[in-house]
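Sequence in, structure out. Go.
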Amino acid sequence: CKTRLQPGKNLNPNRQPTSNCQKVIYPPKVSAPLSIFALAVFIIYNIINYMNRKILLIDDVVSILTVFSYSLKQAGYDVYTADNCTDGYKLVTEILPDLIIIDNKMPTGISGWETTKTIKSNPITRHIPIVGFTAYTGKNEIANGMRSGLDEIVLKPVYIDELLTVIRKYVR
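Output:
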């Protein structure tokens, strides 16, 4: 038996096959305004779910900012950078990033963990996940970072694919 589709007819599951054993499938009628509406919903859904996510990198080492910024842009993220925590905090309040990656030790000004406490104490920014990025592996360093409000700590050196794995846990 062959199956044949006849457009423009209402779906009738009780209809019997024709005498030459062809099963006829009738698709439901869809009005043009409904199909345009469905297409619009589909497009808006995809724009909202797949538009670029904002990541803020805060680190005093310019080469780290440059390499990771380039790699994350290639992966489809909008990347903002700051080379100190004061400028980083200003960016946090201006752009409200989807994720912050922050180094702890800064040569001047406040540390990354202190900045994390400030971000997490602000009702407007406390929901933003923060990943600590440090070369210091001491138990106190990691414990202080987690107490400050970090969601996770990544130890330097790190490869971009490892960092992307961590980022995807927090930014979808």
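Check: The helical segments are 32-50, 62-74, 85-95, 112-121, 139-148, 160-170. Confidence is low (pLDDT under 50) at residues 1-12, 22-27.
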